[in-house]
Amino acid sequence: MAKLLVLHGPNLNLLGTREPQIYGHETLSDIDADLRARAMEKGHDLETFQSNAEHELVARVQATREDDTDFILINPAAFTHTSVALRDALAAVGLPFIEVHLSNPHAREPFRQTSYFSDLAVGVVSGFGPLSYGLALVAAMRQIDGTE
């Protein structure tokens, strides 16, 4: 059994009501419940954490050094384009992670097309709405199970 951590960045707590034409109608609770069920089905433990505060996300990443986390899925949201601190935390802990985005940043405003995380990530899944998380989870579990 592996332990996966899903991190959600700023404003993702508003999913379901925030710009549904871009981010969809599913809530963050819906997404988290689906991910937990899928992970449990494969015998893995999955924890989720959302914060609008950069320092809280950094602290949670750093805590993985002590809590047996094996893999991280992260949607840094707006911090994708701004957070050297969160990038440095992920680099410091050295755990594999997948960067996740509901929308396709490359099809949006130019400032959204730069990620401080992609070059460190095992992979990036974007543009599929809430399904992006599910696809990233499948990829993470395959990495953990050695089938990918």
UniProtKB/TrEMBL annotation:
Keyword Nucleotidyltransferase applies: no
Family the UniProt entry places it in: Belongs to the type-II 3-dehydroquinase family.
Annotated substrate binding sites: 75, 81, 88, 102-103, 112
Gene: aroQ
Protein name: 3-dehydroquinate dehydratase
Record carries keyword Amino-acid biosynthesis: yes
Active site location: 23 (proton acceptor), 101 (proton donor)
A Pfam family recorded for this sequence: DHquinase_II
Domain of life: Bacteria
UniProt EC number: 4.2.1.10
Assembly information from the UniProt record: Homododecamer.
Stated role: Catalyzes a trans-dehydration via an enolate intermediate.
Lineage, opening ranks: Bacteria, Pseudomonadati, Pseudomonadota, Gammaproteobacteria, Lysobacterales
InterPro entries: DHquinase_II, DHquinase_II_CS, DHquinase_II_sf
GO molecular function (one): 3-dehydroquinate dehydratase activity
Reaction catalysed by this enzyme: 3-dehydroquinate = 3-dehydroshikimate + H2O
Species annotation: Pseudoxanthomonas helianthi
SUPFAM superfamilies xrefs: Type II 3-dehydroquinate dehydratase (SSF52304)
Pathway the protein contributes to: Metabolic intermediate biosynthesis; chorismate biosynthesis; chorismate from D-erythrose 4-phosphate and phosphoenolpyruvate: step 3/7
